[in-house]
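Example record for the data management plan.
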Amino acid sequence: MKVFQHVNIVTCDQDFHVYLDGILAVKESQIVYVGQEKQEILDQAEHLIDYQGAWIMPGLVNCHTHSAMTGLRGIRDDSNLHEWLEDYIWPVEAEFTPEMTTKAVKEALTEMLQSGTTTFNDMYNPNGVDIAKIYEVVKASKMRCYFSPTLFSSEMETTDETVARTRSVIETIKGYQDPNFKVMIAPHSPYSCSRELLEASLELAKKKTFPFISM
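Corresponding structural encoding:
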């Protein structure tokens, strides 16, 4: 058993206890004790690690991210939302390639892990996305996520075509059968989706019994 000693611990138990100068014991990858120091726990330790007052806490959850946009930071400041999206962000995203997108996602996951984030919810623009490559990157990171294609209304395709394309991506993600890599139905927003697409998205979520999210 591995025991972390002299550690400050933030928990997510029923009362959200915080233990100062406590210990945390791990056996076969399972946490078996969290709390104040107990000699009987220390006596069972095969590895005793002095954390010297450092903190241990549950992984953070990023509830709203667009990981592929990591490479677009600083592309435009001091613009209103519609100008920023329509004149700068979406035209650049339309030029994304699978290599660019995969690299940006990998960088985003590295940053999240360094900040203590272990789970994220992502709505991604389907342009330039190879979902198989994205899946391998997320799998290698050992993070948990919902990685959901964003639905937009567009003159380029009908609502039925948008839903069909999205359903295809969803079936691909379902096919991985990975509890750490899931999908939601994700219409972008009321201002970028027609009423018809919003209603079709909701029906798809009901039919597939998937979670539903929108900006």
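Summary line stored alongside the record: The chain has six helices and ten strands.
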